[in-house]
Fold each of these.
Amino acid sequence: MIDTETPIAIIGGGIGGLVAGIALQKAGFSPHIYERASKFDEVGAGISMSPNATLGLEALGFGDYLTAHANEPLEQRLYHGETGELLQAIDRRNCRDTYHAAYYQLHRADLLNMLIDKFGLANCTMDKSLTSIESADTGARLNFEDGTTVQTAVVIAADGLRSIVRDQLFDNSPPEFSGHVAWRALVPAEKLGPLSVERWNINHLGKGRNIVSYPVRGEALVNIVALTKADQWAEESWNAKASKEELAQHYQGWADYVGQLIDALPADQLYRWGLFIRKPLDKWVNGRTALLGDAAHPMLPYMGQGASSAIEDGVILGRAFAAADTIDTALKIYADTRRERASLLQSESNLGGERLQAINPDAFRDTPIKNEDALGIFAYDPVTVALAI
Ligand SMILES: Cc1cc2nc3c(=O)[nH]c(=O)nc-3n(C[C@H](O)[C@H](O)[C@H](O)COP(=O)(O)OP(=O)(O)OC[C@H]3O[C@@H](n4cnc5c(N)ncnc54)[C@H](O)[C@@H]3O)c2cc1C
C-alpha cells in the first residue's frame, strides 16, 4: 500500500483536477490543488455528460446531485440547417438500460460547484500560478509566480490544453489551430419558442458549420454552441467576446429556429473560442509527474468527450493509487490503462467535425450517423474497466 500521507499536488482546479482530487480522497489520500485563477469560475455554458462519465461521477457520490440539477435529453435530433427538416432522431431514453447510466445535460457552473463542495475549498490554494516544474525520480519541485516553491512526492498536471507541465516535461510543440471555432452563450428560454425547451439536444447541420442547443437549469436556460470554420486564429486571446451579428453571418438563410436562437442571444455574453489541438502523447508520466485531462489529451468538442474523458482519467487515477504498492506503479497503471482509450476519443472527436460538417446534411436522412454510441464510446465504465496491472 502507498502511504496515504504522501503529498500529492494537483495543478489546475478544472473538472479534471477536481475529479482526480476527489477520486484520490476516496482512495484515502489528501491531495492539494494549486489553481491559477483567484476563484473557481466556469464559462456561462452548458455541458453534456455521457454515460461513461456519469458512471464515474455516480461512483464518487454525485448521483443524487445530478438527478436534481441535470436533465436527460430524450433524443438527440439532427436537422437540416437550411430547411429545418428533421433528418434523424437518436434515442437517448435508452441510456440507462443500455449503459446503466444517464446521459445528462447541465450548467457548467453547477457541475463545478458540485465538485468543489465535495473536494473542499480548504484543500485548494487559489491565485497560485505554476511557472516551472523540476521533475526528479522521487518527486518534483513546483515553482510559482508569487516566488514560492512546493516540494511534493507526486504531481498530477491537470492544467489544461496550454499546460505548462506538458510544455516543460513532455512536449513543447505549441498547440495548433484546428480550423474550428466555437461560439457559446446561454439564452433565457422565455425568449425562445417551444422547440428549445423540449428535452432534446438539437443540432442543425450544414456544410462547414453546425449549431447545437439544449436546455439547462430545468428549462430556464438554453445552451447554444455554434461551430464554424476559419482559416486562421489571429486574435491574441484564444477566447473573445463576439457579436451576434458576426455569428448571424455564418447562418444566413438557415431555418427559422436557428434565426430565433441567434436573435435571442444576449448582446454582451456571446464568446468565441479558437479550438486548438495537440498530438496524442506516447508518454504521460515523467518521474512522479502525470498528465491528466486536456493537458494529456485535448480534443475537439464534436463528441462531448473532453470533460467526460477527464472524469474517466480521474476515476482510474484514484483506483490505481488504491490498488498499487508504490507511487511509480500507480502512475504506470493509470497511464497504461488510460492512454489507448483517450487517444481513441481524441482522434474520433477530431474527426467528428468532418463527419458532421463535411458533407451535405441530406446524407444524414438515410445513413445512421457514426456518433459516440455507434462507436462504442459510451460503453466504457471507468469504475469497472480492468486496470493495466
Ligand atoms: C465549445 C466546447 C464545448 C464543450 N462541450 C463539452 C461537453 O459537452 N462535454 C464534455 O465532456 N466536454 C466538453 N468540452 C471539453 C471540456 O470543456 C474540456 O475537455 C474540459 O473542461 C477539460 O478539463 P480540464 O480540467 O482537463 O482542463 P481545464 O478546464 O482547462 O482546466 C485547467 C485548469 O488549470 C488551471 N491552470 C492552467 N494553468 C495553470 C498554472 N500554470 N498554474 C495553476 N493552474 C493552472 C486553469 O486555470 C484551469 O482552472 C467542450 C469544450 C468546448 C471548447
Amino acid sequence: MAIDPICKMTVDEKTAKLTSVYKGKTYYFCAPGCKKKFESDPEKYASGN
Ligand SMILES: [Zn+2]
C-alpha cells in the first residue's frame, strides 16, 4: 500500500487511478482533490513524506 501524501490515507497501488510522478517518484491519491492539491505544490508534500 502507498500513502496519499495529502491526507495520509492508504492507497492500493494496484487499483489506484490517481497518480502523479514527481522527481522520479510516483505518488498515489485517494481523490482528485488530493492529486490537484499535490500538483499545486508538490515540493511541500513530497518533502514531508
Ligand atoms: Zn487523499
Amino acid sequence: MATRTREQLITPSGEVELAQALDQPMRRLLGRSLRLRSVVAGSCGGCESELFALSNVVFDMARFGVEFVASPRHADGIVITGVVNRNMVEALERTYAAVPDPRIVIAVGACAASGGPFRDSDAIAGIPASIPVDLWIPGCPPHPLTVLDGLLRLLGRLDGRHPAAAPG
Ligand code: SF4
C-alpha cells in the first residue's frame, strides 16, 4: 500500500501504514481535479504500463478528476517512475521546476523508492533531495488499484483500513 514516507514502506511487523491525506488547503485545491505529468526516469516500462491502465475503462481514474497531462505547465504535480539514472536528474529537476506551486510529487514503483532490481548500478542517482515526495507507491510494478488507492487517500477521498485488514 502507498505511504507518505519512504520509511513507512518497510513493514517488519506486518502492520501497514496507510497514506494520510494532504492538509486541508491542498485538498481544497487538488481534491476534485488533479493533473499529473509523468516523468519516466530510467524505467523498464512496467510501471508506466500499469499507470496508463488507470485511464482505461476498467479503472477510469478520470471519474475521480485525476488525469495525466502532456505539459508540466498544466500539471499540479509529477509522477516519477524508474530509478532516476544520472542522465535524467536534470530533466526531472527541470520538469519539477516547471510545475506551478503548490505541487505534489508521487514516486511509483520499487525503482523510484530504492533502485529496485537495479539498485547496485552506478548509473543510479535516485530522486534528488530537492524534490520532496508526497506519496510513495510500492510494487514492481504496482497494480493500478494500488496506485488509485494511494491517490484517493492522498486526496482525502478514501479513508479507513484496507479492506483486506477488515475483520471477518
Ligand atoms: S519497479 Fe519494476 S516495473 Fe517498475 S520500472 Fe522498476 S523494474 Fe520496471
Amino acid sequence: MKVEEIALARKKYQDDGFLVCPDPLLPHDLVEEAAAGMDELRAGRYETGIPPRPSSWSPGDDPNSLCKIEMPQIASHAIMDLVSHTALGAKAAEITGAEAVQVWWVQMLYKPPIVAGQQVRTHVGWHQDYNYWGIWEDDSELFTAWVALSDVAPDCGPMNFVVGSHKWGLSTKSDFFSQDYDALRDAIQAEQNQEWQEEPAILPPGSASFHQKLTFHGSAPNLSAQPRRSFAVHMRTEKSRPKDNVRQGLTTFIDDPRYCPIVFGDAGALK
Ligand SMILES: O=C(O)CCC(=O)C(=O)O
C-alpha cells in the first residue's frame, strides 16, 4: 500500500472505530487448512493433544447454534499458523501504527446456516468487546482482527459495525448472547441518544476487518447455504497493560508465545 493509502486507512479506522479490508491477506491453502481444523475442533479432535479453553459451545452441543470455541489455536497447528501469520500482524500494525502487536486471545466462530424463522441461537447480540475485557487497564490499546474463512456475503450473517460508536464510552447494555437483536439496539440507542449507522463487513475468504474495543457490533443469522466461518483474533499493542500486572482469566497466557504469538515487532515492547 502507498503511504497516502495507509494514512487514509488509519484515519478511517480512527474516525469510524473499524476498518473492513476485503483484499485477501492470507494464503488460500492456509485458509483451507484452518477451515478443516475448525471441523476437527467441532468434532472434538485435538491434533496437538491440548484442548481449547472452556467454551460456550462444546462438541456434542446443538450443531445448529452458534459455535464459539475459545483459544482454538492451541488445539490445531493450522489454526495457530493462520492467527499468527505475519501478514495479519503487518496489517494490524499498518492500521494502528503500533510498534508491536500480540495476539492475546482467539475465538473461533462458526455460524451454521439456518432457514428464516428457525428457532436457534445464531445471533451475536450488540456489544462492545471491552465490556468483557475489564482485566486490562482502561486506556489499553486492544482491538480485534476478524478473519473470514468463508465467503461472508450479505446473506451470511456478516458482522455489522456501528459507525463512530467507539466514541460513546462504555455502555451498560452490551450482550453478546442476546437473541433479541432489535430490542437490544433500541435499548442502546435510548441509552446513547446518538445516530445509529450500521456498516456490514462483507469479506471474501482470507480477508479481515479490524475493530476497536469500544466499537459496537453484532450479527444476524446466516441465511445462506454455507456455514459462516471466522476467527476473532483479539490483539493488543505496546500501549496495553493488564490491571495491576495480574495474569488471570483472559490474560493468563500472555507471557507464553506458544499460546499468544507476537505477530509484529519485538516482544520487549509489550508489558
Ligand atoms: O462473529 C460475530 O458475528 C461477532 C464477533 C465478535 O463479537 C468479535 O469479533 O468481537
